[in-house]
Design a protein that fits this description.
Layout lengths: L1 E5 L3 E2 L5 E8 L8 E9 L3 E9 L4 E3 L7 E6 L4 E6 L8 E9 L9 E2 L3 E5 L2
Parallel strand pairs: 2-11
Antiparallel strand pairs: 1-3, 3-8, 4-5, 4-9, 5-6, 7-8, 9-10, 9-11
């Protein structure tokens, strides 16, 4: 499968970061699939934000859980990320990825090319 991230590259502090991952070459509802959001920055390294399973179960990284929302849109074969109340600390390259089973720190079967998101006024 192929994944592609989309969304704004610049978000103002205190606003909501919204990204979409479009999946092609396979169904987002194929059993055992887990669809994750990950980010990477020079300051924090790689950080798993959360995931949604092909059946709609949602998992979040505990430190970010209060600000993160992930959802599945089966009609569009997409899944989305919302991160509220962003600060410059949320500036990073954001990736979406697929795995068989939940992966929070490891290798993924497929990953998008990433989208740079900068939080700045």
């Amino acid at each position: 499968v192929q994944l592609r991230e989309s969304g704004p590259g610049l978000v103002k502090p205190s606003q909501t970061l919204s990204l979409t991952c479009t999946v092609s070459g396979g169904s987002i509802t194929t059993p055992y699939g887990y669809w994750s959001w990950i980010r990477q920055s020079p300051k924090k390294g790689r950080e798993w934000l959360g995931a949604v399973s092909s059946s709609g179960d949602i998992f979040y990284n505990p430190p970010l859980k209060s600000r993160t929302s992930i959802s599945l849109d089966t009609s569009k074969n997409q899944f989305t990320l919302q991160l509220i109340s962003v600060t410059p600390e949320d500036t990073a390259m954001y990736y979406c990825a697929r795995s068989d089973g939940l992966v929070t720190d490891g290798e993924y079967d497929s990953r998008g090319q990433g989208i740079q998101v900068t939080v700045s006024s």
